[in-house]
């Protein structure tokens, strides 16, 4: 069951990618230039949305109450339960906020009100933008190669007609 759970999503993703590539080639071969640009434009817009979302999340200000979160629960049957243990907020939530990186479990203490440095924010934004635009670049390469091939075929046909 474990191998099937690993291979099945891979097969589905490869199938979807091949469908998108075939659709891009088909749209690029049309007489008009614009249908071939639909998928790259959609991919570009989605990558910009991803980048804006991640960057805006990265710049959100940390909580100002020391990092503790209060969970409000209605008073109900839990209040009279004998099995319930008494926990304070300090037992559940640490006073220190930690930050986990994408590439590892590196943790460090975040000061109250601290924002990411400008250099790290800019490099992160550029990295996110480059990585999320990989499909856009692939689709544009398919479009350009297909359009060049069509233009070459049209020129060959024109020369054949002129030779007759």
Please explain how this structure is put together:
This protein is mostly helical and 164 residues long. The chain has a domain of 79 residues. 59% of the residues lie in helices and 0% in strands. The chain is built from 5 helices and no strands. The longest helix has 30 residues. It is flat. About 9% of the residues have low confidence.
Cα distance spanning the termini:
66 Å
Number of helices: 5
Relative helix content: 55-70%
Gyration radius over CA: 27 Å
Rounded mean pLDDT is 77
Sketch the topology as an H/E string, one letter per element.
Answer: HHHHH
What labels describe this entry?
mainly alpha; single chain; flat; 164 residues
Question: What is this entry, summarized?
Answer:
With 164 residues, this protein is mainly alpha-helical.
Explain the layout of strands and helices.
Layout: H1 2-28, H2 38-58, H3 89-92, H4 118-132, H5 134-163
Helix pairs in contact: 1-5, 2-4, 2-5
